[in-house]
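Researcher: Sequence recovery benchmark, item below. Answer with residues only.
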């Protein structure tokens, strides 16, 4: 009898010791993201309990908005969930408000609270809708000035007589590696003269000229004036052509002064080399945060007929918290999902640049068939969030 009592006490002590070793309850999300869908739906958020499973655990929960909105994305809610003894999984109901309009992914927060602890999780609400059909007129393709599920953040329609210096700054200099900070071995001199950059009939026109053997062009940026993190960026433009011509719409990380390229990151929304006037590229450049190695990823698309010189097209970049997608005339042609080695490079503020280079490592130098002047004509740049 005494032996049985001793064994029983020993088992009890081991059990107590095990509970003490397990420590505070560990909860984690099995549902780290949800898909919005095009219709209203009821879904479940699954919570997992990793330890202390031999006890009953009661928690209150609260679903609150971060970037989501009430009635437009999902319903804020509160309630109670219970993990019964031996239960490792519990679910929380959530009402999702679906719609057929393309938008960026958004965040909401789930807070769980027991008598001893508070747990907070962020959950991503992904959008799975397709872009609206592209519009067209006699001059080419265009996109709407607004989207039902996005808010206008910033735009420039280039309607004034002069460049809006509240948004833009002229970059003055050349493309050689020793005299400036954009060393691609370019040949042009960037300036602000009317013969290289002007506004006319609601368009920004950057002109590359051959001034008696000296190539001149223009480059502008919004650094310190217009900066953003995430968004849909639409740029309507007609592009130049000819060997050695290199127009680009792109973004640089706003921390470039303290985190030099490629550490700051670069998002190229559109690049074209004039010897391939039917093909455009979307690219990212960044630094591996582990070993500091340079990394890049690119996507390309070509017109089935004609050249980008012939008419206006819309170059769209949808920059989200987990990926970047490139579209031509609302047709997806490239995607980049952030690898772990990119760190937070693409989750920080960026500013915009528009330029037309002449020469450089990629396009090479103009030849005797390159016609000057060449014009990059931009109808608008619009940013939605």
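Model:
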């Amino acid at each position: 009898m005494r032996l049985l009592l001793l064994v029983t006490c020993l088992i009890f002590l081991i059990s107590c010791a095990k509970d003490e070793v397990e420590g505070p309850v560990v909860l984690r999300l099995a549902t780290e993201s949800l898909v919005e869908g095009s219709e209203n739906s009821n879904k479940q958020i699954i919570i997992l309990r990793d330890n202390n499973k031999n006890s009953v655990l009661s928690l209150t929960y609260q679903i609150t908005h971060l970037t989501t909105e009430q009635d437009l994305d999902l319903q804020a809610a509160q309630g109670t969930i219970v993990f019964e003894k031996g239960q490792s999984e519990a679910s929380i109901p959530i009402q999702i408000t679906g719609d057929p309009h393309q938008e960026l992914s958004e965040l909401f927060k789930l807070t769980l609270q027991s008598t001893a602890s508070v747990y907070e999780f962020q959950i991503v609400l992904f959008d799975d809708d397709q872009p609206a059909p592209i519009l067209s007129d006699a001059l080419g393709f265009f996109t709407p000035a607004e989207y039902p599920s996005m808010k206008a953040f910033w735009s420039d329609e280039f309607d004034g007589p002069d460049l809006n210096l509240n948004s833009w700054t002229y970059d003055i200099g050349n493309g050689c590696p020793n005299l400036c900070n954009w060393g691609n071995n370019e040949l042009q001199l960037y300036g602000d003269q009317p013969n290289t950059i002007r506004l006319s009939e609601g368009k920004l026109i950057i002109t590359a000229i051959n001034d008696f053997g000296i190539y001149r062009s223009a480059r502008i940026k919004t650094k310190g004036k217009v900066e953003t993190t995430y968004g849909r960026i639409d740029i309507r433009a007609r592009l130049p052509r000819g060997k050695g011509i290199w127009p680009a719409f792109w973004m640089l990380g706003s921390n470039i002064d303290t985190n030099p390229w490629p550490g700051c990151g670069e998002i190229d929304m559109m690049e074209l080399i004039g010897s391939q006037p039917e093909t455009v590229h979307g690219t990212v450049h960044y630094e591996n945060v582990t070993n500091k190695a340079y990394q890049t990823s690119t996507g390309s698309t070509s017109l089935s007929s004609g050249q980008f010189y012939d008419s206006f097209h819309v170059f769209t970049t949808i920059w989200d918290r987990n990926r970047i997608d490139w579209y031509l005339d609302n047709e997806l042609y490239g995607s980049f999902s952030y690898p772990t080695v990119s760190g937070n490079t693409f989750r920080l503020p960026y500013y915009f640049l528009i330029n037309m280079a002449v020469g450089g490592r990629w396009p090479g130098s103009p030849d005797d068939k390159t016609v000057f002047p060449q014009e990059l004509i931009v109808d608008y740049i619009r940013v939605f969030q």
